[in-house]
Design brief:
The chain has 16 helices and no strands. With about 375 residues, the protein is mainly α. The two termini are about 35 Å apart. The C terminus is likely disordered.
Length: about 375
């Protein structure tokens, strides 16, 4: 990668810096982090598409950039605790909410993409750091369902992160959050039973995740007050909501016959400059699913794979279900059904469209992609 390419992946840290500055300044400035997110939402779609390759990266340097994201996120939370606990004289009730919203968005954009990348690493350090970042959103063990369910059952009814056609984002968030936690428990219980360990074993990843979140709550209470602890819980809820919305837009309505190979057509891609940089290439989603262990700097954009607009634009539109369905969901899935789906997937699409109450556009006789 060029020097510019390395700098691209520092953009999450720069974004988090805006949230830190807002909290430091206090007053209405605590909304600055959320304002930075809105600025990205406006700017990213105006920058056009980015199909550029990121080749020739030095693995050590690329990993240092990844792990560095922990620093600004940690500093964000230190300043957040300081502002809420000891420097809150200039905050009105609405500003407390603004601080929580800003911290939720900055942590989600600055920390969760790095955590996701670490979930797919085989090193103990990577998995630990990923779980710590996930703990902020009360999901320190979410990697269990993500790796062992989502990446195996992608686009099937058994997947925990694929929305149904016609399912609005609010219903999906509740369903997905519940199913991911339930499946994570099932996976961990199976692992412990296989090893002959009890539920109360120190090796229980679920208990570790719960314990880490309890420590975070207790530590934040001691550093701030009861209000601070309640705001932390609000940030966790908002952050989990943000995370699930991004899951929603990456697989919305896609279909795959269980047991068939996962291919490029089984994920939506959002190939924009800021989107790729801010998410450590999560939006280069097709190859990520074809090869989940490939590090972010080696992911290759697939311009011919299913495409959506900017991920941040899609995030905003998803919050307004009628607009999402009219501008994104139906038209792009009609294109997917007629240009990407296999013969069997077209049969599944007919049933899915019927269940959603959508028109049967597959009656036009369009040819299917090869099975």
């Amino acid at each position: 990668m060029t020097r510019l390419d390395y700098l691209r992946y520092m953009s999450p840290a720069l974004l988090v810096a805006s949230g830190i500055a807002g909290l430091w300044l206090g007053g209405h400035w605590v909304w600055l982090g959320f304002a930075a997110f809105l600025a990205v939402a406006v700017t990213d779609p105006l920058l056009g598409k980015d199909h550029g390759m990121r080749r020739g990266a030095h693995p050590l340097l690329a990993d240092l950039i990844l792990y560095f994201q922990v620093v600004p996120v940690a500093l964000l939370w230190v300043v957040f605790a300081w502002r809420i606990g000891t420097a809150n004289a200039d905050l009105v009730p609405l500003d407390y909410f603004g601080a929580a919203v800003s911290v939720a968005f900055m942590t989600a954009l600055g920390g969760l993409p790095a955590a996701h990348e670490m979930f797919h690493r085989h090193s103990a350090a990577g998995k630990f750091v990923g779980s710590v970042l996930g703990t902020i959103f009360a999901s320190g063990y979410s990697a269990l369902a993500h790796v062992h369910v989502h990446h195996i059952e992608t686009d099937t009814a058994d997947d925990t992160e694929t929305p149904f056609r016609g399912e609005n984002v609010y219903r999906f968030v509740v369903r997905a959050a519940y199913r991911q936690h339930r499946r994570s428990w099932q996976i961990e219980m199976t692992r412990l039973n296989r090893l002959g360990l009890s539920f109360w074993s120190p090796q229980n990843l679920i208990l570790r995740g719960i314990g880490m979140y309890a420590l975070l709550l207790g530590g934040f209470y001691l550093a701030t007050n009861l209000t601070g602890m309640l705001l932390l819980m609000l940030v966790s809820a908002l952050g989990l909501f943000i995370l699930e919305i991004f899951s929603y837009i990456q697989h919305y309505g896609l279909l795959r016959e269980p047991g068939t190979p996962i291919e490029d057509r089984h994920a939506w891609n959002h190939l924009t400059p800021l989107g790729r940089a801010l998410t450590f290439e999560i939006v280069t989603h097709s190859q990520h699913h074809v090869d989940p262990d490939r590090p972010y700097w080696r992911l290759t954009p697939r311009p011919n794979a299913p495409q959506m607009p900017s991920a941040v634009t899609c995030f905003v539109l998803a919050l307004i279900p009628p607009l999402w369905e009219r501008l994104i969901g139906r038209p792009l899935l009609e294109h997917w059904d007629t240009h990407h789906a296999s013969a069997r997937e077209r049969e599944l699409a007919i049933a899915a469209n019927r269940a959603a109450g959508w028109p049967q556009w597959l009656g036009n006789g369009a040819a299917a992609a090869p099975a």
